[in-house]
Structures are given as structure tokens and as C-alpha cells.
Amino acid sequence: MKEFIGNSIFFGVGISLLGYEIGLIVKKKWKLAIFNPLLISIIFVIGVLSICNIRYETYEEGAKYLSYLLTPATVCLAIPLYEQIELLKQHKKAIFIGIISGVVTSLFSVLVLCYLFQFTHEQYVTLLPKSITTAIGMDISKELGGIVTITVAVIIITGVLGNMIADTVCKVFRITHPVAKGIAIGTSAHVVGTAKALEMGEIEGAMSSLSIAVAGLLTVIGASIFANFM
């Protein structure tokens, strides 16, 4: 069985999709934020690899084909943005001030926490790109001398948590304007958060899509500056 799995290039894709499908079923049945399909699929894959004693390299050989879809999927988020282009023009100042504030807050919070917990410089720069899409965050981490694999894990955790608590945070802080919701979610929780924003509405999804791109570019600049603070 293990040999069969090792020779199958689609094993990684298969269990990833199966785990996500299980997550969708669980989410649909219980409708609780904790039952996030992506989170469930991650736990499912880890469980399968551990129980079957399968090396990550074997899984990754097939799962890498899913990774190829990350960049085009991110680009496709431009479609809802194009559909809401007039709204973007109407609120352009508030939108860009909101994104800039979100990026600075993200970088500053990492700086403060790393000082409090006495992290090393390597650990610090590893965490700086936590709130942007993996495609950009990996390159930033590598360029600054961080641990790329941990950066990827932190980015995923940030996105999943953002997806899970987005509704609750908006209700607690009484954030009702769709533009404000989209900007907040996209700036803090990148693509995974944007999936939640799209569930909320077209405007939220469009603004969140814009935030991913702009926040990514600003973080490239901001992380290079903040990297010198510790």
C-alpha cells in the first residue's frame, strides 16, 4: 500500500481534495466557525500522513500541482474588483488609508510581540510577512533571511483564523460598511480571508481582493524597513 502511494503522483492532490470535501460537509452540517474546511483538511492530511507513516516529500510530490493554482487563483480575484471599480473610485482615499494602516499595524504588532518574547532576528523576519499571500510572503521571508517553511505555516494560520473570526470581529466592533469589512479582512487575512469576504458579499470580496495586492506590495517595502528595527 505504501509503495503504491509512493508511486502515485496524484496521492497528494487526492487526499487534499478529500480532506477539503470532508471539511465542507462538516461545515454545512454544524455551521460553526471552528469547522473551517481548510483547517479540517489540514488536520485530515496531517492525520493521514502520520497514521500511514508517509513522508511529507511523498505527499508534496503530488500536492505541488495544487500549489501551481495559487497564483492564477489570486489573479482571478481581480474580476470582482473590476466589477466594483466605480465604488473604488468613490472611496479611494479611505480605502488606501485603511490598507496602509492595516499593513503598518501588522508589522508593528509583530515587532512588539517579538521584543516581548525575545525572539531572534531570524524568527522576527520570519513572522513579518504573516498577513500577506503565500506567493509574496515566501519571497520576502527568504530575502530577509527568515525560515520560509515557518513563514508559510504562519501565513496559513493567519488566513484560517481570519476566515474563522471575521464575522465575529465585525459584529463586536460594529463594522457594517461593506467596503470597511472587505479592506479589513483582505489586509489582515489575505486570500483565505477573502474567501470569507466573498461569502459576505460582492463588495466585500472586491475590496478584499484589492487589499491583497496593495497590502502585498506595501509589505514588501514595509518589511524591508521594519527588518532593521530588531
From TrEMBL:
Which Pfam families does the record associate with it? LrgB (PF04172)
Determine the domain of life of the protein's source: Bacteria
- Topology class, membrane: Multi-pass membrane protein
State the InterPro entries in the record.
CidB/LrgB
Q: Which UniProt keywords apply?
A: Membrane, Transmembrane, Transmembrane helix
Subcellular compartments: Membrane
A GO CC term attached to the entry: membrane
Q: Where do the TM regions start and end?
A: 6-26, 38-56, 62-82, 94-118, 144-166, 210-229
Q: Note whether Cell membrane occurs among the keywords.
A: no
Q: Which PANTHER family match?
A: PLASTIDAL GLYCOLATE_GLYCERATE TRANSLOCATOR 1, CHLOROPLASTIC (PTHR30249:SF0), PUTATIVE SEROTONIN TRANSPORTER (PTHR30249)
Q: What protein name applies here?
A: LrgB family protein
